[in-house]
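Q: Okay, next protein. This is Hedgehog protein Hint domain-containing protein from Compsopogon caeruleus. I've checked the sequence twice, so it should be correct. Can you predict the 3D structure?
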Amino acid sequence: MKGAVLFLVFMVGVKTLGVWGESMCADPAVTPGPSAACSALTVIGVVRKVDWSGISASGGTFDGAVIVNSSITGGDFSGTTMLGDNSIQSSDAQSTVWSGSILNGSLAFNVSTNMNGCDAQGLVGSGSLILDTVSAANCSFGLSGPTIKVENSDITSSKFNGDFPNAYFSGVAGVGAEFSGNFTNAKFLEATLTNAKFATNFRYAKISGSAQGADFQGVDLQFADLSGLNATGANFRGADLYRANFTNAILIGASFDGANISGTNFFQSMIDGSEMLPAGINATTPTPSPTPAPTPSPTLTPSSSPTLGNETANPSTSPNATTEFNSSASANDTTSGSDGPCFPADALVELVNGNEVEMRALKVGDRLRSWSGAADDVFFFGHRIPTGQFEFLSLLCDDGTLVELSRDHLIFEVRRQEMIPAKFLRVGDTLQGRGAVTSRIVRVSVTIKEGLYNPHTLSGTIVVNGKFASTYNSFAPPQLSHLLLSLERLSYRAGFSLFGGLLDGERPVLLTKALTLVPRSSA
C-alpha cells in the first residue's frame, strides 16, 4: 500500500513537471483517439506517442501543448485557439486541417514533422506560425494577422495566400510554390523557388537563391532586392521593377516585356538573351576605364563651403563604354538637353522630417535635409515645368542609387573635391552622399524624363537621390549666381518674393537677363 501511494505521488509530480500533459474532449465520455468525435479538444503540456489520426477536434484549445512522436494524420483541428508556445515535433501530421485557427500564441511544426497536404487557411490572431525542418508540400496557408517563419523546409507546390508582410523564408525548397497577396518586406533567403508563381505585392522584399522559371508577371517589386538571384528564364512581363536591385543577378532568357524598369539596377547582371529589354542593357559586366591616381591626401567629405568648379575640369577617365540604358544617344553627344541646372519631376529629395518627396511635389518654404543634416529652406525655383520631355544625364552608382540631372548641372566629385558639370563625369568618378558616404559611378547614360525642376536653397546646395550637388550650373560662376539671388533670399526671409511675379515659363526674367551679361566659360 505504501509503495502504491509513493508511485501515485511520483506520477503526479511527473505530470506537474510537464513530462506528460493533459488532453481531453468537451464531452468527458469521449477519449481522444483515432477518428474520435472530440469537439473542443483541450491539450495542455507534453503529449507523447498518441494516435489521433482522423480525429475530429475542431474548436479546441492548445495551451503550451507539445505533441511528440505522434500520429495526427487527417485530423481536423480547425478553429483551434493557440495560447502560449505550441509545437508538433517528429510527428505525422499529413492532411491535417487548421483552417480558421486563432494564433494568439505560436504554433510550430518542427523536428522532421511531415505535414504534407495540410490546410492552414484563414489563420488569424497576433501570434506566429513556424515551420522548421519539416515537409510541407502541397499545403495551403492563409494568414491575416499572424507572422510566418519557414526555415529549411520543403514547400513544393504549396500555396501562400493572404497577408504576409515581413514573412521570413530561409533555405526552403519551393518548386512550383505559389505566393499571392501582401508580401511587403518579406525575405526569401537562399531559397529554391524554381517555377514558383508570385502575385500582387512584393515591395521591399528580398529574394536570394534560385527562382529559375519563376513567374513574376504583373507583380509589384518596387525597391525589391533581387541581387545575386538566379532567375534564368523568369517572367517579369508587366512587373513594376521601379528601383529594384538586380545586381549580380542571373537573368539569362528572362522576359521583361512591358515591365517598368525605371531606376532598376542591373549592374553586373547576366542578362544576355533576355527579351524586351532596352537596347544595350545586355552588357553583363560594365568595365570602367582606369581612373587616374587621386591627388595627394584628398579630403573624404566636402567642406562646409565646397569649391565650385567650372567647365574646364579635367575628365578623369575615357568616356563610358557601356551602351545606353534609356536612349540610343551617347553620354558625350552634344545633343541639346534641358536648359539650366535641372532635375526631372521624379527626382527625390529628403525633407528635414525624414520624408522623401519628388521634385514635382516640392514648393517654396519646404525645409530640406542638407548634406550636413541641418535644415535648408527652398526659397525659389529657377525652373518648375511639370510637363514635357527633357533630356538628362543618368548616373548609376555602385550602391544602386541613380541620379538624373542636366548636363551642365554642378555636382560634387570627391577626387577633385569640387563641384563640376555633370557632363564631365565618367565611370569610376566618385559622388558624395551625406556625411562620409561615397559611391562610384558605374554607368553614365542619357535618358528622357518628364518635367524640369530647379529648386534653390538658402545654402546653394542640395542632396538629390542621396547625392550632394549645387543648385547652380556652369552657365555663370556659381558665386555670381548666388550673389544675384541674394535679394530674393532676403525677400524670402522677409516673407515675400521679389521675382515671384516676374516669371516667364517659371524662370525669373531679371535673373535671365542678368546672366546674359556674363561671359559664358568655354567648354
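A: Here is a summary of the prediction. Residues 2-16 form the longest helix (15 residues). The radius of gyration is 31 Å.
Q: Noted. On to the next one.
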